[in-house]
UniProtKB/TrEMBL annotation:
Cofactor dependence: Mg(2+)
Listed transmembrane segments: none
GO biological process: fructose 6-phosphate metabolic process
GO cellular component: cytoplasm
Name of the molecule in the record: ATP-dependent 6-phosphofructokinase
Gene: pfkA
Keyword Kinase: yes
Protein task: Catalyzes the phosphorylation of D-fructose 6-phosphate, the first committing step of glycolysis. Uses inorganic phosphate (PPi) as phosphoryl donor instead of ATP like common ATP-dependent phosphofructokinases (ATP-PFKs), which renders the reaction reversible, and can thus function both in glycolysis and gluconeogenesis. Consistently, PPi-PFK can replace the enzymes of both the forward (ATP-PFK) and reverse (fructose-bisphosphatase (FBPase)) reactions. Catalyzes the phosphorylation of D-fructose 6-phosphate to fructose 1,6-bisphosphate by ATP, the first committing step of glycolysis.
Record keywords, A-Z: ATP-binding, Cytoplasm, Glycolysis, Kinase, Magnesium, Metal-binding, Nucleotide-binding, Transferase
Record's catalysed reaction(s): beta-D-fructose 6-phosphate + diphosphate = beta-D-fructose 1,6-bisphosphate + phosphate + H(+); beta-D-fructose 6-phosphate + ATP = beta-D-fructose 1,6-bisphosphate + ADP + H(+)
Annotated localization: Cytoplasm
Annotated site residues (Important for substrate specificity) in this chain: G184
Binding residues for ATP: G91, R157, G158, G182, D183, G184, T185
Ranges for domain Phosphofructokinase: 84-389
C-alpha cells in the first residue's frame, strides 16, 4: 500500500494545478487514504469491507477513486480572479447554513477569494426567468446564520434546463459552483459538469452531500443526521410518555427516511423505550400470525403500552402502487404509512375487543428545520473547508465526505449510483432488534 503512487489511481477530471497556494505551500500532501485498498487489476481504490462498493460496480457506475481531502500545495485558481457561487437544493436539513458559512469563510479567509455569491432557491436561481437575484456573500453576511435552521439561500425541487444553467455560470463568470444537496442535487451537479466539459469551460463543481436520511453511498455520515436523530429522540421520549399515560396506550412516531431507516433506527437506540422500529429495509405484514399487529397485541397485553417508530418509506409493500405520485424532482411520494398504521391499529384493537388509546405523532418537518447540534456544526465546517480546498485545487465533479474517519473526495457518480441502506444482517439492525425486542421478522413466510 505504501508503495502506491498517485499515477496508479484513476483520478477523474483532476484539474491542472498551476499556482502555489500561498498558505499551504509547506503542507505535506498525502493523496491516498491508508484505509482504502487498491484492486491492481482495475486500478481502483476501494474499501475491502464494503458492500456498497459491490452494488456500485453492479449498477454500472464508474470505478471509485477516493482522494484524501484537505489542502493541496498547488492551487488551480488565482484567488484574486476567482468567482465562487453556492446553491442549496432539495429538502431542508440541519446544518445547511453552517456549510454556507464555512464555505464563505474558507474562501474568504483561507484563500482570500472576495467574489462569493449565493444562488437563490436552488437550481431555479440559475434560470433568469425565475427572477431570483444572486446574493453577495461575505463573512459579515454569514456571521450569524449558523444560529438558524433552514437555508438563507432558499431551496427548490424540479428539473431545470442544464444548458441554460451553464449559460448562467458562463454569463456570470463563475469559476467554482458549490452545490449543497442530496442525491438529486449531486446528479444535477454531475450533468452540469458534463456540459461544462463539453464547452471546455474553466469552471469546477463541488458537492457537499446534504440529507438527514444519511443514505449517501460511501459516506459514514452526512451532515445534519446527528441533529436529526437527536431531535427525533426527544420526540420519541415524549411519545413514550403518551403511551404510558393511558392503559393500553400505543404511540406511533413517524420519522423521515424515504429509502433508508437510519433516523428511525438511531432515534430508537438513543431512546430505548421503543418497542418496534419499522424501516424500508425490512418489509413487514400487518396481518397474519407473524404480522406486526399480532406482535403489537402481544406487547400491549403484556405491558399495557407500546411505542412504535416508523420511517416514512417503511411498509410500502402494504399499499397498491397503481397511482404512484411523484414530486417535482421525480422522487416517488410514498403513501402515508404513519396514518395507515394508526387507522389499522385502531381497527385491529376494536375487532379484538381490546380498548386501546392510539396517539400518532409526525414531527418530520420540525426535525429537519432544526439548528445543527455542536457535533454537526463542527462537521459542517470541516466538510465546507475541505470542499473549498478541493475546488481551489481544481478538482471537479467531486463530492466531499467522510469515510472511515477520513475526509474524502469522491467522484459524484460513485456517490449517486445507489443509496446507502441499513444492512438488516449488520450490527445496526441487530442492535435495534436487541434493544426493542421486536421479532426478527414480522412476515408470514
Ligand atoms: N439527474 C438530474 N439531472 C439534473 N437535475 C437533477 C437531476 N436529479 C435531480 N436534479 C435536480 O436537483 C435538484 C434537487 O433534487 P431533489 O429535489 O431530488 O433533492 P435532493 O438533492 O435529492 O435532496 P433531498 O435529499 O432533500 O431529496 C432539483 O432541482 C432536481 O430537479
Ligand atoms: O416534503 P419534501 O420537501 O418533499 O421532503 C421530504 C423528503 O426529504 C427527505 O428528508 C430527504 O431529504 C426524505 O426523507 C423525505 O421524503
Amino acid at each position: 500500500m505504501n508503495d502506491l503512487k498517485q499515477e496508479d489511481f484513476e483520478v477523474k477530471k483532476l484539474g491542472k494545478a498551476t499556482l502555489v497556494s500561498p498558505i499551504y505551500k509547506n503542507y505535506a500532501e498525502e493523496e491516498i487514504s491508508n484505509e482504502l485498498f487498491i484492486d491492481e487489476s482495475r486500478k481502483i481504490v476501494y474499501d475491502a469491507s464494503l458492500s456498497s462498493y459491490k452494488n456500485t460496480l453492479e449498477s454500472g457506475a464508474e470505478p471509485i477513486s477516493f482522494l484524501k481531502a484537505g489542502p493541496r500545495k498547488d492551487i488551480y485558481f488565482d484567488p484574486s480572479k476567482t468567482k465562487a457561487a453556492i446553491v442549496t437544493c432539495g429538502g431542508l436539513c440541519p446544518g445547511i447554513n453552517n456549510v454556507i458559512r464555512g464555505l464563505v469563510n474558507g474562501l474568504y479567509y483561507r484563500y482570500k477569494v472576495r467574489n462569493i455569491w449565493g444562488i437563490q432557491y436552488g437550481y431555479q436561481g440559475l434560470i433568469p426567468e425565475y427572477g431570483h437575484e444572486m446574493k453577495k456573500l461575505t463573512p459579515e453576511v454569514v456571521k450569524d446564520i449558523h444560529l438558524f435552521g433552514g437555508t438563507i439561500l432558499g431551496s427548490s425541487r424540479g428539473r431545470q434546463d442544464i444548458s441554460a444553467m451553464v449559460d448562467a455560470l458562463e454569463r456570470e463568470n463563475i469559476n467554482i459552483l458549490f452545490t449543497i444537496g442530496g442525491d438529486g442535487t449531486l446528479s444535477g451537479n454531475h450533468v452540469i459538469n458534463e456540459e461544462i466539459e463539453r464547452r471546455g469551460l474553466k469552471i469546477v463543481t463541488a458537492g457537499i452531500p446534504k440529507t438527514i436520511d444519511n443514505d449517501v453511498n460511501f459516506m459514514t455520515k452526512t451532515f445534519g443526521f446527528d441533529t436529526a436523530f437527536t431531535t427525533a429522540a426527544a420526540v420519541v421520549r415524549d411519545a413514550h410518555n403518551e403511551a404510558t399515560g393511558a392503559y393500553n396506550g400505543v404511540a406511533i412516531v413517524k420519522l423521515m427516511g424515504r429509502d433508508s431507516g437510519f433516523i428511525a433506527a438511531n432515534a430508537a437506540l438513543a431512546m430505548p423505550d421503543v418497542n418496534f422500529v419499522l424501516v424500508p429495509e425490512n418489509e413487514f405484514d400487518l396481518h397474519g400470525e407473524k404480522g406486526f399487529l399480532a406482535a403489537l397485541k402481544e406487547r400491549v397485553l403484556d405491558r399495557h403500552h407500546a411505542l412504535v417508530v416508523v420511517a416514512e418509506g417503511a411498509g410500502q409493500n402494504l399499499f397498491d402502487h397503481e397511482d404512484v405520485k411523484k414530486d417535482k424532482s421525480g422522487n416517488i411520494k410514498h403513501k402515508d404509512i404513519g396514518v395507515h398504521l394508526k387507522d389499522e391499529i385502531n381497527k385491529f384493537f376494536k375487532s379484538e375487543d381490546i380498548e386501546a388509546t392510539v396517539k400518532y405523532i409526525d414531527p418530520s418537518y420540525i426535525i429537519r428545520s432544526e439548528v445543527a447540534i455542536p457535533a454537526d456544526s463542527v462537521f459542517c465546517n470541516d466538510l465546507a473547508l475541505n470542499a473549498v480546498h478541493g475546488a481551489m485545487a481544481g478538482l471537479t465533479d467531486f463530492v466531499v465526505g467522510r469515510w472511515h474517519n477520513q475526509f474524502t473526495y469522491l467522484p459524484i457518480p460513485a456517490a449517486t449510483a445507489s443509496r446507502k441502506k441499513i444492512d438488516v444482517n449488520g450490527p445496526l439492525w441487530w442492535a435495534v432488534l436487541e434493544t426493542t425486542g421486536q421479532p426478527l421478522k414480522m412476515k408470514d413466510e
